[in-house]
Structure formats: C-alpha cells, structure tokens
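Hi V.,

Quick status before I head out on leave. The structure for the redesign project is tokenized and pasted below; the design run finished overnight.
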C-alpha cells in the first residue's frame, strides 16, 4: 500500500511515494532557471509536460500498481498559482480515476515534517528558509495543534533575495550555491542589519548589495558580506525564539538549508546553548514529492477527510492556518 505526493509549487516537479512512514521513491525534475528568473506560465508548462511520465516512472521504481495507491497528496500552497494548479489537477484527476481520497498539503508543513522524520526529532524549533519563505516555526497546542510562526520576514524570502543578487551580479547559474562559491575568501563590508524581535527584513540588504556592486566593490566581498549578514539575522532571531521557547532541538529546512555556511553557523549557535542541531540531506531540503507524500499519509491515517472545497490551490497558504491532526 502506498501514498503518492505531488510537489509543483515552484521550479521543481517532484513525485514521492511513501509506505507507512517509509520513503520508497522520490523523483524530481527541476526547471532550468534563466536570467529572467521564474516565469510561472513557462514553469507550469514544464510541469504539465513532465508530470505523467514522472508518476509512471515513480510507480515503477517503487514497484507498485494503481491498486496499491491509498491516497494522493499535492501541494496546495504556498507557491506560484499556475504551477500549483498542475499538481492539484493531476491529484484530483488521479483520485477520481482510482477512487481514492486526495489530501491538500501545506508546503511549509511538509518541509518541517520531512526534516523531523529524517532527524527523528519530536518537537524542534524550525527555521524554514527557501526562495519565497523565511520563518521561525514551532508546534503549539493553543488553541489547537498547529505550527506557530514565531518570526518571519517582513518582505522577501532569503532565497529569492540571494537569487536576485546573483542575477544582479551576473552570476551563472543565478542561485545560492553560486553566490556561496563567489563568496569564498571574501572580506566583510558592513551592511544593513534588520532584526526586530524575532522578525527580519531583507529588501534593504539587497538594495545595499546592488549599490555596492555598482560602486565597483568586488562581487566576492559583497557576496560574502551579504551571506554573513543575512544568515546572522536569521540565526539571531532563531536564537531568541529558542531561548523564549526553551527549545532543546533546532532544525533548519527548505531550499536555503542546503547552504554549508548557514548549517555551520546554526551548528555553532546550538552548540553555545547545548541544544541539538539537525538538518536533513539536500535531497529532502530541496523541494521534493516525498515530503508531500509523507504529510498526505499522516493526514490520511489520522482520518482527515478534506471537503472538495478544501482541495484548491492557495498561493499564500500560511502554515499557521493548518490544523495538525497527527
Ligand atoms: Mg520549498
């Protein structure tokens, strides 16, 4: 028996299959980002062309047939509307065809749950960092079980901010790992640092970095300073949340959690407080279908029965609006 998960919120079309909490398959295809960034309609075309083939391939790898499928999960949001729609329609069509329920999954919940699953953590504080999102999150039982947002970005997500800088500095490919490579051996230039309580903001930092590039500062020094400043902001706010919540476990998840420097800084912060630090492998921090399948299975096994009107897409689907029923 198995649950399939479909992820299509941004540049990745991912299909995952889980069977009683075990990931049996996790296949993904990533849209190649050009200098124009992500154009939602084009990415949606890429997803709709690929989805059928990836599902067949996944079922073959997992060694399952249509009769083994018990439920189908898809990413309801947050994400790009046109891209989310491909996953939703695929899930609804398959569910009707196979006569099995469909589970609308929150993408942020999925990132945290797969990291918890991988690290065997029960109740960590989580720093969720990706292109569109940057949030500090922990489980709360008040007024019912849900993921509470302790702190978040006032403007852009840290991943998009770094990608935008990469495009401005003409780095290729224009994403975080290229910025990290360019930053090696750089010297620190002071930059705007915006932390308010447990919230933070990145737009001013990006504008400042662009101005520094225009004024002739080396890409290496600016890339280095940008990374150091942004990651310090994220971890200062996380550290404050950890102290306030009394958390003994801290994890980072989402696309930006693949950054070696962010992991190093988070590890040092936790060490200073005797807390356990964890981060899953890159396979599970990049967007993937397994995390959607994992949460869909939890929803399904805990008796969740979504109404048809819940099975929509929601571009700004906030994690704190999800009831955690498992
Ligand atoms: Mg993501």
């Amino acid at each position: 028996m198995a649950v399939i998960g479909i992820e299509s919120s941004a540049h990745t079309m991912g299909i995952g299959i889980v069977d009683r909490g075990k990931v049996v398959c996790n296949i993904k295809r990533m849209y190649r980002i050009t200098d124009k960034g992500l154009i939602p309609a084009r990415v949606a075309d890429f997803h709709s062309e690929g989805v059928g083939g990836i599902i067949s391939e996944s079922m073959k790898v997992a060694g399952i047939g249509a009769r083994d499928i018990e439920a189908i999960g898809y990413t309801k949001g947050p994400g790009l509307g046109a891209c989310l729609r491909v996953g939703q329609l695929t899930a609804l069509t398959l569910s009707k065809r196979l006569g099995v329920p469909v589970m609308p999954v929150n993408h942020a919940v999925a990132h945290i749950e797969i990291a918890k699953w991988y690290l065997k953590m029960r109740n960590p504080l989580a720093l969720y960092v990706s292109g569109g999102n940057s949030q500090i999150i922990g489980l709360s039982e008040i007024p019912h079980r849900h993921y509470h947002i302790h702190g978040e970005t006032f403007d852009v997500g840290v991943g998009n901010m770094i990608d935008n800088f990469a495009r401005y500095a003409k780095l290729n490919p224009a994403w975080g790992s290229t910025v990290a490579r360019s930053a090696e051996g750089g010297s620190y230039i002071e930059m705007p640092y915006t932390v308010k309580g447990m919230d933070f903001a990145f737009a001013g930092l990006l504008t400042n970095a662009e101005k520094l590039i225009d004024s002739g500062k080396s890409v290496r020094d600016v890339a280095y300073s940008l990374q150091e400043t942004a990651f310090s902001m994220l971890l200062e706010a996380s550290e404050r949340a950890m102290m306030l919540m009394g958390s003994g476990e801290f994890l980072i998840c989402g696309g930006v959690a693949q950054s070696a420097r962010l992991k190093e800084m988070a590890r040092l912060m936790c060490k200073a407080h005797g807390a356990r630090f964890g981060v899953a492998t890159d396979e599970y921090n990049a967007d993937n279908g397994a995390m959607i399948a994992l949460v869909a299975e939890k929803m399904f096994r805990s008796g969740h029965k979504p109404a048809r009107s819940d099975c929509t897409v929601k571009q700004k689907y906030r994690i704190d609006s999800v009831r955690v029923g498992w």
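Above is the designed sequence. Residues 107, 111, 130, 254-255, 287 surround magnesium ion (CB under 6 Å).

G. will cover questions while I'm gone.

Best,
W.
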